[in-house]
Amino acid sequence: MKDGFLRAAAATPKIHVADPKYNSEQIINLIEEGNRHGVKLMAFPELCLTAYTCSDLFLQSSLLREAKAGLKDILKATEGKDMLVFVGLPWEREGKLYNAAAVIKNGRLLGLVPKKNLPNYSEFYEARHFCPGNERPVMVEWEGENVPMGMNLLFCCTNMPGLTVAVEICEDVWVPCPPSISHAMAGATVVVNCSASDETTGKDAYRHELICSQSARLVCGYVYANAGDGESTQDLVFGGQNIIAENGTCLVESRRFVNESICADMDLERLDSERRRMTTFPAPETAREAGGYMVVEFSFERGAGQEAMAVQAGQSSQSGPGSQGGQSSQTSQTSRILRYIDPAPFVPHDPAQRNRRCEEILSIQAMGLKKRLEHTGCQNAVIGLSGGLDSTLALLVTVRAFDMLKIPRSSIHCITMPCFGTTDRTYTNACTMARKVGAELREINIRQSVAQHFADIGHSMDNHDVTYENGQARERTQILMDISNQTGGLVIGTGDMSELALGWATYNGDHMSMYGVNASVPKTLVRHLVRYYADTCGEKELSEVLLDVLDTPVSPELLPPEDGKISQKTEDLVGPYELHDFYLYYVLRFGYRPSKIYRMALQAFEGQYGREVILKWLKVFYRRFFSQQFKRSCLPDGPKVGSVAVSPRGDLRMPSDGSSRLWLEELERLG
């Protein structure tokens, strides 16, 4: 439960039809297994105590009594276990039968949630046996206690902020207006679905999309436990497709036809952050009052640090929610997060999806520039082409925009401005690129003008300090701006979002342009955009030079080279961009605490970066992110391409003089 992670499981027991005693034993075995693996919330299928396929046996009082006896056994087995458990069973109240889910915690029955929507079409005929559930809770007697029964029950954890659980059953999520909509509006952050959904050809894909889409629409976690092998096959087969989803993402999904149990850590803080950010997501009080919701409080007794959490992310087993994993060298058994932590959150791993994303981003960038060119009436563009990644991407985007407008590419003025740090490799690549795309290439050597400037201000050429570096960057920007006046063109900004986040730009130097096409593209994604262009441009020589640009170390080339090679490597100075992009994503997208980001980075970059390295650059990130906001506060216009952006007019309205003390002190406590 540390850092807002909730370990949830969906389990499919191997049952016998109409044998609650046997079935309760199987359920108890899975509960024991889940408890050993630190599971806090565990869901079982619809009517699993009896089997969903009992048909007219549901009318037999013997079966109903045995189901309650099985429930008692399960309640007893959960005593002393710090778990919230959901089990499906038939429940009789006032002469009527209900398809219900029992909610159990530490030997107590907290509530009963009945199914509202009873399918009575095709292979289903639930209305033959069951009545639709009541929305507003009523009290029913159980073992000398009054227990609430109703759809509108919210199970709220008093010592885990952000955890409020609601239940719907199978068909409830398939209807036009599922109960989970009301539940989420009333404050539920996790929805449990006890289901018995049979298999037909293609239904698994639809079911997957349905559950993931519902979790996205409601900005919630969704635990879907489905019936499987053991149900009657008289007319149907059940595949046991279990799904745990979070805000549109499938965290883990079982195989079908093998009765697997699955387990994952849901991030409640992520859900809370997303709802807090969405001002259109309603406050729960009104919906809770209008729906007559009853809140049932419970608490967890132990924290994550006291439990064995050794399962590996995404694993599943037939016997329980995970299998024993080895001790991680970087994250201990008690702190390992049971979910995949993507080290490159801005970059899709699936090649086909990544290619679609690259094409889409290039189109967004080009469309943004196209509109600006149309609006200003500019028929020319000016780009400082260095032979590095960012200016390469800016050129490729400009080419695409010019092609859209049917403006000759020769009206793209590529200016290469060699100075003290320029190497033959980057110079050659810049010249080759400009020629291959059909742009105009102009070389302006700035050594003499920068040397004169240093002489004017009394700065020694041997002093390679920040003045030495920034003087070159500002001279280049002045040249670009003046050429734009000469040509009536637009200066195209080249700097990317990662550089802007770190303030790795010369104020009023490369920081400034007339339209920044890369302003919301992180460095890790810039590489993939250039590679995608190289792979799809269909021009062998252009592709070769683009690939060489990709192999060139990232550098501003402001210090003299050593033996003709780049001596100033950006990532040696500010840190690896893959780390900074990881930090940037979780700082801006979800507002996570530094300690949580650090913990996630340890797992995401395990075997690649050590603890000290990750912590060192995380401190650097926060220091620079806060201290360099003044550069982002006056950014040129540029198009947003993803869910994270740093424009002061869009996603990031941050004071330039905000204090970083709170965040840095938390990092200092980590070591």
Any overview of this molecule?
By secondary structure, the protein is α/β, with parallel strands linked by helices. Helices cover 38% and strands 17% of the residues. A seven-stranded mixed beta sheet has the order 5-4-3-2-1-14-16. It is elongated, with a radius of gyration of 30 Å. It starts with a strand and ends with a helix. Residues 303-320 and 322-329 have low confidence and may be disordered.
Give a quick precis of the structure.
This protein is an alpha/beta fold and 671 residues long. 38% of the residues lie in helices and 17% in strands.
User: Radius of gyration, rounded?
Assistant: 30 Å
For the biggest β-sheet, the strand order reads 5-4-3-2-1-14-16
Mean pLDDT: 93
Number of helical stretches of at least 4 residues: 20
* Number of E-type strands: 21
Q: Judging from the principal axes of the Cα atoms, what is the shape?
A: elongated
Instruction: Estimate what percentage of residues fall within beta strands.
Output: 15-25%
Poorly predicted regions are 303-320, 322-329
Q: What can be said about the biggest beta sheet?
A: 7 strands, mixed
Class by alpha and beta content: alpha/beta
Q: Summarize the amount of helix as a percent range.
A: 25-40%
How many angstroms separate the termini?
A: 22 Å
